[in-house]
Design goal:
Layout: H1 6-11, H2 15-26, H3 30-33, H4 36-55, H5 60-72, H6 87-95, H7 104-116, H8 134-146
Length: about 150
């Protein structure tokens, strides 16, 4: 298992998700792995989302799919500056080899989180999260962590 997000990966309830996220992180671009501020940012989003899920008693596969999506959301953000605005769409082909690690519905649920995590800035309008969905929750958590008036501790 990779050391990046080791603690967060161990907090996933299902072993399939732990293996899937660990595999995906291992092949992540060096531009992601070496960006300490991005890793810290992602950990903060993970914490915010996990706390909100705990409040609503969301557990099991649903929780794991959402949190796995959080951990994988920015894998491609630093790869090429000209593509940073579409980075949510670059993760799917990057980790396609691990599609078999999860049931199809769980794979799609996780990638839906990844592709919609930028909220209203999601590169394709059709992928923008709808209020009340897990994708919207993750987009809001990203906004909270980015906010200069809110400090998130990890």
């Amino acid at each position: 298992m990779t050391d990046i997000f080791k603690k967060e990966i161990e907090e996933l309830e299902n072993m399939d998700f732990q293996v899937f996220v660990s595999n995906a992180i291992q092949i992540a671009p060096e531009s992601f792995k070496s960006d300490e501020s991005l890793i810290e940012y992602t950990r903060k989003v993970f914490r915010v989302v996990d706390e909100m899920l705990a409040i609503d008693r969301i557990t099991g596969y649903v929780r794991d799919a959402i949190l796995a999506g959080v951990l994988l959301s920015d894998l491609a953000v630093n790869e090429d500056p000209k593509y940073s605005s579409i980075h949510p769409l670059l993760v799917r082909p990057l980790i396609e080899d691990f599609k078999g690690d999860l049931a199809v519905q769980l794979w799609e649920a996780t990638l839906n989180i990844v592709e919609a995590h930028e909220g209203s800035k999601t590169p394709i309008d059709k992928l923008a999260p709808k209020p009340g969905t897990p994708e919207h929750l993750v987009a809001l958590a990203n906004q909270i962590v980015r906010s200069e008036s809110i400090e998130v501790k990890i």
